[in-house]
Write a structure and sequence with these properties.
The protein folds into 2 domains: 1-56, no CATH class; 59-146, Ferritin, core subunit, four-helix bundle (Ferritin), CATH 1.20.1260. The chain is an all-alpha fold. The chain has 5 helices and no strands. Helix content is 82%, strand content 0%.
């Protein structure tokens, strides 16, 4: 390594290992969310084609159309969010509709699902995701962001 490269690394050396791990975790999380959003977008396109393009899903399954509607609502909400230039704020703003979609889908599961284990999971998702939404909304208010 040359001297210029070593000088570029000095701020990292001053970071505590805890802060460095948090930073790496945050970068990894952002990358993961980005890749997941690409995958969900591709999956959603395939689901839309499957359900709307070919008519392969019978009309007798309202839970399927409600699940798709909850994902459509999430994608619309995420699309209107403009980058703020603050990765923390952007992360939280994008996670809010994501968590709400999880709640909506879990409620649909409670309406139509029969398996006790999946119903229990759905209830836990509702409880956990709602608490996380409240936490994120509180954090945004502390940042003086709507």
């Amino acid at each position: 390594m040359n001297r210029a490269t070593l000088n570029d690394l000095r701020p990292l050396k001053r970071m505590t290992s805890h802060n460095a791990r948090l930073l790496l975790f945050a970068y990894g999380l952002v990358l993961t969310l980005y890749l997941l959003s690409l995958g969900v977008g591709l999956l959603h396109g395939g689901v839309r084609e499957e359900t709307h393009g070919h008519g392969s899903q019978p009309d007798g399954h309202p839970n399927w159309s409600e699940l798709i509607a909850s994902m459509d609502k999430m994608h619309m909400a995420m699309r209107v969010i403009k980058p703020s230039g603050n990765s923390d704020v952007d992360f939280v703003r994008l996670m809010l509709p994501h968590h709400q979609a999880a709640i909506d889908m879990a409620k649909i599961q409670l309406l139509y699902g029969k398996d006790p284990q999946m119903r229990k999971l759905a209830q836990e998702i509702i409880t956990d995701q709602q608490l996380e939404i409240e936490l994120m909304q509180h954090w945004l208010k502390q940042q003086h962001v709507d």
